[in-house]
Amino acid sequence: MKILITGGHMSPALAVIDEIGSRADIIFVGKKYDPENEKTFALEYREVAKKNVLFYNLQTGRLTRLFNFKSFINLLKIPLGFYQALRILIKEKPNSILSFGGYIGFPVCLIGFLLKIPVYIHEQTSKPGLTNRITGLLAKKIFISFEETKKYFSPEKIIASGNPVRKSVLKVSKKPFNFLKNKPVIYITGGSLGSHSINNKIKEILPGLLEKYIVIHQTGSRIIKNILPDKLKTTYFPREHFFADEIGYIYSISDLVIGRSGANTLFELIAWKKPAILIPLPWSANQEQLGQAEIFQKSGTGEIFDQNNESKNLLNLVDKVLSDIDNYKNNFKNVELFYKKNAAQTIVQTLLSSIIS
User: Fold this and answer.
1) What is the pLDDT of residues 24-50, one digit of tens each?
2) Same-domain pairing of 331 and 349
3) In which pathway does it act (predicted)?
4) Does residue 216 surpass a pLDDT of 90?
5) 81 annotated as belonging to a binding site for a ligand
6) CA 88 to mean position of chain CA atoms
7) Quick one: 142 and 174 in the same domain?
8) Residue 230: strand pairing partners
9) In this structure, what CATH number is given to the domain that contains residue 138?
10) Do the annotations mark residue 208 as ligand-binding?
11) Residue 3 contacts by C-beta under 8 Å, 6 or more apart in sequence?
């Protein structure tokens, strides 16, 4: 049996790869190189390569609302993506295709559909993007994370699997830091690539945070430790990236998380029962991040901070949440139903049983 996995949401894809294990051969189609630096391997390639999964680099373009030279080059790459997808599928002959959304998966799913290979998709967010809405028309089954997503797809195709969370994230294994926890710990993240706007906010209030708290900061490409007085450097731990086997430890010691409100972050926070201050990405498709952040705010497990708000107000909000942290933790009983522990198992069992039958 052979399963091809593709798409833009890496965390649930990695969870499914782990669940499949040795029960089927896996092929991954994605971006091998960082779009901003083509000499650097992309994070998805590094993560997949660690699992000894065969990786195919797909060079394809995407449609954008802006038209400039870069978007023009993007358009020219779209036919190349379909051609490469055709070559990969003819060569590998997978029994099924599982896509986790995003423009990278569309040519694979469309060509797969035309070759009569069963296509499955997973929708991570509460409001599906354009790619998954179109691919949903081709899919045999559609796995969803939120109940409200049902209205966007054909009812007979839907399986409410939940969002797979990587097992490595849920356990403490590798410790990237060793320190005495004598203050509350704040974990700040902008996602796998960091966030320029979040980093700027934190830079402005970092001395104030470090007077009271220990800060673990996933900074993307921005390292700001060298601006600090020596006395504060001992409680500030910046890293460009945390790998999957490190995140569990970070969550385990954190009292509060500050970050974007992507679906994967949301489910990891629920799994760990970690209160959060969520800063929704303003230009996320269909305002999906705002909708997901509102789930936390309404349930009493977190707060929303607008990235256009003043930095000093973020510092005040941190103080407010941490002064009442036990109440926020107790409110996780209001969101437990969102998290389905067997999400990856449900997806894999569906794929394997379909292939066998």
Assistant:
1) 999 999 999 887 677 788 888 998 999
2) no
3) Cell wall biogenesis; peptidoglycan biosynthesis
4) yes
5) no
6) 26
7) no
8) none
9) 3.40.50.2000
10) no
11) 20, 24, 25, 26, 27, 94, 95, 96, 97, 98, 351, 355
Give the Cα separation of 68 and 66 in Å (integer).
6
Question: What domain range is 227 assigned to?
Answer: 169-338
175 pLDDT exceeds 90?
A: no
- Give Cβ neighbours of residue 252 (< 8 Å, ≥ 6 apart): 172, 272
* Percentage of residues of the chain with pLDDT beyond 70: 92
Residues 221 and 332 in one domain: yes
Same domain? 159 vs 174: no
Alpha helical stretches, state H, the chain: 10-20, 43-49, 69-92, 106-114, 130-138, 196-212, 230-233, 244-253, 263-272, 288-299, 311-323, 325-330, 343-356
Q: Are residues 301 and 347 in the same domain?
A: no
Whether residue 101 is annotated as binding a ligand: the answer is no
8 a known binding residue? yes
6 marked ligand binding residue: yes
Distance (Å, whole) CA 241 – CA 207: 22
Number of domains in the chain: 2
Category of 89 on φ-ψ map: left (φ > 0), alpha (ψ -120 to 50) or beta:
alpha
287 assigned binding-site residue: no
Q: Are residues 206 and 137 in the same domain?
A: no
Same domain flag for 183 and 146: no
Positive or negative: CA dihedral 324, 325, 327, 332 = positive
Tens digit of each residue's pLDDT (9 = 90 or more) over 113-131: 999 999 999 999 888 888 8
User: What are the tokens at 312?
Assistant: 């000093």
The mean predicted confidence, pLDDT, of the chain is 90
Q: Are both 68 and 210 inside the same structural domain? A: no
Structure tokens at 68: 């400039």
- The per-residue pLDDT for range 225-268, each reduced to its tens digit, is 777 788 888 899 988 888 878 999 999 999 999 999 988 999 99
Fill in the DSSP letter of residue 141.
E
- C-alpha to C-alpha distance for 7 and 251, rounded to whole angstroms: 26
φ, ψ for residue 37, nearest 5 deg: -150, 95
